[in-house]
Amino acid sequence: MTGYPLEHGAAAPDSETIVLLHGGTVASWSWQPQVERLPERHILTPDLPGFGSRSGEEWLSLDRTADDVAEIIRSHARSGRAHVVGLSLGGLVAVRLMARHPDLIRSCLISGAPLAGIHGAARFLNTLQLRLWDKAWYWKAQAKAFGLPEDAVDLFVGHGLGIRADNAARVFADVNRGGCPESLDDYRGPLLAVAGGKESSLVRRSFPELQRRLPQTLTWIAPGMHHVWSIEDAALFTRMIVGWVDKATVPEPG
User: Which residues form the AB hydrolase-1 domain (predicted)?
Assistant: First the structure.
């Protein structure tokens, strides 16, 4: 699969690097709405192992993926540090990055990250999804459940069908297990944890543990948003990034 570019805004003056980490049913291309709204920013949009241009690679673990992202930051970010934004699976990777490589992160923003893990009926449904992985109708139903705009559905479905089921099984196992890494307390920078107002309550249940481990954590509920709301309301998501990176504030809807 042809990859979406890693680097954007290379000529942007005086811009600290922002790294955008995608979710587990998309790839780096899903950040195009943010990239086009931030032409004056230096942005890195890596594909995580097993996704997009790296769909032939194996997903090994959240920790190994965090180490992979750390190398990208060291090699491509300005001054070797970056603001990190992670959505869903990307948010879980960002948490491991905070724990394992805190010196590389200027600030962190995570959205839709179920750090407490997935249990009970929700875990059963996760497992059930693997039986439907190669069905186009399943991916179309996912697009509707996520509230994706019509012009994003075909790309979402096509990419989903290209994700290897064995990689998806390993990702689900990591996500289901949950848990905050022991060394997370070493991160001293700003953290914003976000949940969409219409996504699973599993996400906001992670907030108290984050705030216990990292007292500097701020939380925000994005009103009316589903899980993949970077596409659902690209303008609001982008305003959130800018407000957090520049002023450590969250946006007023509207």
Answer: 18-236
